[in-house]
Structures are given as structure tokens and as C-alpha cells.
From TrEMBL:
<feature type="domain" description="SnoaL-like">
    <location>
        <begin position="7"/>
        <end position="96"/>
    </location>
</feature>
<protein>
    <submittedName>
        <fullName>SnoaL-like domain-containing protein</fullName>
    </submittedName>
</protein>
<dbReference type="Pfam" id="PF12680">
    <property type="entry name" value="SnoaL_2"/>
</dbReference>
<dbReference type="InterPro" id="IPR032710">
    <property type="entry name" value="NTF2-like_dom_sf"/>
</dbReference>
<dbReference type="InterPro" id="IPR037401">
    <property type="entry name" value="SnoaL-like"/>
</dbReference>
Length: 128
């Protein structure tokens, strides 16, 4: 496991650099969304999601992180419009890069607002 990749992911997200964050993932990486049932497959799908996320989240910050033998968890807080939201990024690493990102968020009212805003941005990009 590469703690360096986890640190680089965190730094890229904190500075709003979706492309640098996406570049840390393997070409066949999988993204599990908190608001869409079917996983997104591939680094380029993940890149589009991350580009939209950095536009939707306001006052984003990581508050804590946790590591174990199976992955790394970054706990974040942010706003979506007027709704406070907190969640976690769960990262799994492989030999050649990050292989999986799972995001979980709460509360439901903020997740609903996140879904609406993300759907609009992804529709603009032709990926929704």
C-alpha cells in the first residue's frame, strides 16, 4: 500500500485539482458513488465525476484520516448549497495506482441536494 498515493490524493482534492487526483488511479479503477447504484468504471469516468465534485462542494476540508491493511479513509466536511454534508472517501491501492474509490455521505437531505447538482453538471458534460 502506498501512503504516498493517499497523501497525494488528499493534497490534490484539497487544492481542487481533479485531474491530479484522477491521475493517481489505474485505467480500470472503480468509483462507487453515494448517490448512484451502479459503479462507474475507468479512470476517465472518475475524472469527470471529480471535476464536477470540485465545482459542487463548497468550504471542503478533510478533518481526519484512518489507515489499515485494506485501505485508507479520509473523513471530510463540506457544504452543498446551504446544506452541511459530511462523508468519507474510502481508497484502495494496488500495485500500479489507486484501484477503487468509494464515497459515503450524510445526511440524506444534503445527499439529495448533492445528487441534484451533480446530475445537472454531468448532464452538461454529456455523462449523466
Amino acid at each position: 500500500m502506498s501512503s504516498d498515493r493517499f497523501a497525494r490524493f488528499r493534497a490534490a482534492v484539497e487544492r481542487g485539482d481533479a485531474d491530479a487526483a484522477a491521475d493517481l488511479f489505474t485505467a480500470d479503477a472503480v468509483f462507487h458513488s453515494p448517490i448512484v447504484h451502479k459503479p462507474y468504471e475507468g479512470r476517465e469516468s472518475l475524472r469527470m465525476i471529480l471535476r464536477a465534485v470540485v465545482r459542487v462542494f463548497e468550504d471542503f476540508r478533510y478533518d481526519a484520516e484512518f489507515s489499515g491493511p485494506d485501505g485508507h479513509v479520509l473523513w471530510f466536511r463540506t457544504r452543498v448549497g446551504e446544506r452541511a454534508l459530511d462523508g468519507v472517501d474510502i481508497l484502495r491501492d494496488g500495485a500500479d495506482g489507486l484501484v477503487e474509490l468509494t464515497v459515503m455521505v450524510r445526511p440524506y437531505s444534503a445527499a439529495t441536494e448533492l445528487r441534484a447538482r451533480m446530475a445537472a453538471l454531468l448532464a452538461e458534460q454529456g455523462t449523466g
